[in-house]
Amino acid sequence: MILVGEPLALDLLNTRWRDGDLLGSGALFRDWLAAQRDRLTPPEAEVDLDAVRLLRQAVRECVEHARAGGTPPAPALRTVNEALRHAPAHRELVWPDVLVRRGGDVTERLLAELAEAAVDLLTGPALGRVRGCAGPECSLLFLPAHPGRRWCSPALCGNRVRVARYYRRHNASAPTARPE
Ligand SMILES: [Zn+2]
Q: Which residues, other chains included, contact 131 with Cβ-Cβ below 8 Å and sequence gap of 6+?
């Protein structure tokens, strides 16, 4: 699991990084879903990973355009809106509790929840604070809790960059063959 705990829509985008994809296998994606179980209804059966991938791509295009102050492309908006429409939520009174149910099949229900998270991000105040990781080959997105945060994870990119910088400095300043 490379990065979870950001707003759900960013976690969805972060399932894909430079050389990995949690949507590449059902087992990897199940781990991700398990990590999200507090805010995402666990699907009770295998979901269609291609459909999740399509939604993820649409959300990515929406987020990229919106962050740049533009309007997301119509096909991306259509994909998000279809996901919302296919599994609308309704309340059900199961005495004495009120449960939220959804229509649609198992994939449609998941897509609808992810699309709702995307809408929340795209239309909320947090969008302007979304930041891309400063790691040179990292495309992960996060919402910094403090303005100084630069890395998706200090343990991943932060450390990698610090180590690279250290070796660059060390090699540049130290003579290669110093006599003892
Ligand atoms: Zn990073």
A: 141, 142, 143, 144, 149, 150
